[in-house]
Amino acid sequence: MRCQLSAHDEDEGEHFGLLTDTGAYGTALWLRWHGPDDAQVVMLPDCPMAAPGPDGDGCRLFADHTAQHTWQDAVEEVLYAS
Ligand SMILES: [Zn+2]
Ligand SMILES: [Zn+2]
Question: Residue 75 in contact with residue 53, Cβ under 8 Å?
């Protein structure tokens, strides 16, 4: 399981990996861990933030996550490429 949070210190804080998003609407099951022996399954609401613009991507993380929204990487790549 890989951590899905971008741009945070691997040695600090909590890591999150998506298990399944087929649960109740607007929620997903995540694995949360601090270290290899300390993992919990948690159900979290989806992050409500979408990229700006009429067809902006939705964020694929959970509400109140740390680090960037998943679409922010793509936005920055576009900005740096132009
Ligand atoms: Zn992490
Ligand atoms: Zn987000």
Answer: no
